[in-house]
Specification:
By secondary structure, this protein is an alpha+beta fold. Helix content is 17%, strand content 33%. The chain is built from 3 helices and 12 strands.
Amino acid sequence: MSSNDAGSRYFTCGSDATFVALLTALEFTSSMFRFWRGFIVGQTVSHVWSSYAWCLFFEFGSLTPGENYVDRKGASRQFSPGGEWSLTTMDSWPSWTLFRNQRVLASSDAHRRVRDPALDLLVVRRLNMFGIDKLSKSTRLTFSCGMVLETGTTLSKMHGQPHWLLRGPQEGNDDWPPVVLKP
């Protein structure tokens, strides 16, 4: 994607938008008490997709095209591309809500026609913070330009367990170690 394409497809951060985003980030992070400071914090999202409404995948770094396959109807399809680093909720299936400047854009309960374009807004956004809110116990990912993704585990067996798994170059293609947030 060229820089011209990025400007037309994704909203931009001007000086006013940057100021609002900073205020939003301060307000959204004031009650955070556990954080994760792994490699992808500070990196830009290359691709985001969901296999189901609650199962999110964030790709960081250079993308490798997905493999081709034939679906059950016989149509040729291609899997989503993979990044050098992948962050996913595939084990916990949390509900999620995506905000921009504290305004709800979409949630895991929304129709795919609403969810997918909203999630696409995270592409080219930098992951600024990854933490847990003290009051709600929700995991909150704060991105550039006032974008915030908040997740909460709805499966009782997953309460107290990590929501997110991360795969990077050192893990290979099959190992997805959990992301553990610390005070």
